[in-house]
Design a protein that fits this description.
By secondary structure, the chain is of the alpha/beta class. The chain contains nine helices and eleven strands. It is globular, with a radius of gyration of 19 Å.
């Protein structure tokens, strides 16, 4: 039977945060009707919003939106998905792609993709990052925004339903850079899932990205080499804090934005650095892995998480 979806926001106020911890604020309970109607996961029947049959699992999850303070006291928007069933779950930090407003995580993506992972027994948390319509600050594309994600660790430590010793990161596109820059600054991450990430920002055939770098990266105009080196995922591997980190590198061989050799570089460097690493290449798939994203990709990710998180 189809059910009306009631998606309430987590009232983080019930948790106590010290003055030195990052906090979340300005939360209001909402139903799914408060979000823009999304025909991907639901339909309107008799004036009510009803889950489509293939998204019935959404009813077993809670979806949260929240504001929190980053390390420099800016207000940042975050999201969280968790199983409704009581328990202690491993947590996965999802790192978004894009820049600024482009690449923000919409509700239907939480429900239709990340929700499928959460439904297997994971809490998923992420940051919309600074410099978009709901977050303060300016997106530095691998600068202070990395600390926006690291600040989520303080929030994770306050959640009563997560195993704080089992934390993974999952990045797609620009989010892979965020993953590796995080891994230089914390040893708490057990596993790293990296999809369609640029290994080295110097090696970029998309000329429009250099316009993004000029507009967003502080100091780029003065010293572009130094600015891009500090954001290199490949160079970050030598400084990964957790030497027992496991890595799952995934990419389509027809990726129109990030060439397949980036995945090969990741695999080679991580392997030679003695990190447990798996490389999965999908034939004839593009940057979004659109033909496998909701099928085989989910199976592979779930299997990896069962083994390594």
């Amino acid at each position: 039977m189809n059910k009306i979806i009631f998606v309430t926001l987590l009232l983080f106020a019930k948790f106590s945060f010290s003055q030195t911890k990052n906090t979340v604020s300005n939360l209001e309970p909402k139903t799914i009707a408060s979000f823009p109607f999304d025909s991907i996961i639901s339909k309107k029947v008799g004036g009510k919003i009803i889950l489509r049959n293939e998204f019935q699992y959404v009813d077993s999850l809670n979806f949260y939106g929240f504001n929190y303070k980053s390390f420099d006291n800016l207000k940042i928007r975050g999201f969280l998905v968790e199983p409704k069933k009581k328990g202690i779950y491993p947590v996965l930090i999802y790192n978004r792609g894009g820049n600024g407003d482009f690449g923000k995580i919409p509700f239907h993506y939480l429900a239709s993709f990340l929700g499928k992972i959460a439904n297997k027994g994971y809490v998923i948390i992420g940051s919309q990052l600074r410099g978009n319509s709901t977050s303060e600050g300016f997106d530095e594309f691998g600068g202070k925004d990395v600390n926006d994600v690291l600040s989520l660790l303080d929030i994770i430590d306050q959640l009563p339903n997560v195993d704080k010793t089992r934390i993974g990161v999952f990045g797609w596109s620009r989010g892979v850079m965020t993953n590796f820059l995080m891994l230089k600054k914390t040893n708490r991450i057990k596993t790293n899932i990296a999809i369609a990430g640029q290994a080295d920002l110097f090696d970029m055939e998309r000329s429009e990205m250099f316009g993004v770098y000029r507009a967003r990266i502080p100091g780029y105009a003065k010293d572009s080499v130094a600015a891009l080196k500090t954001r290199s995922s490949l160079l970050a591997i030598d400084s990964i804090e957790n030497k027992q980190l496991t890595n799952f590198i995934i990419q389509g061989n027809k990726d129109e934005r990030v060439r397949i050799d980036n995945a090969l570089k990741f695999y080679s460097k991580l392997n030679s650095s003695n990190f447990t690493t798996r490389l999965l290449v999908y034939e004839n798939e593009n940057h979004s892995l659109e033909n496998v994203r909701d099928s085989n990709l989910l199976i592979e990710i779930e299997d990896w998480l069962r083994r390594y998180l």
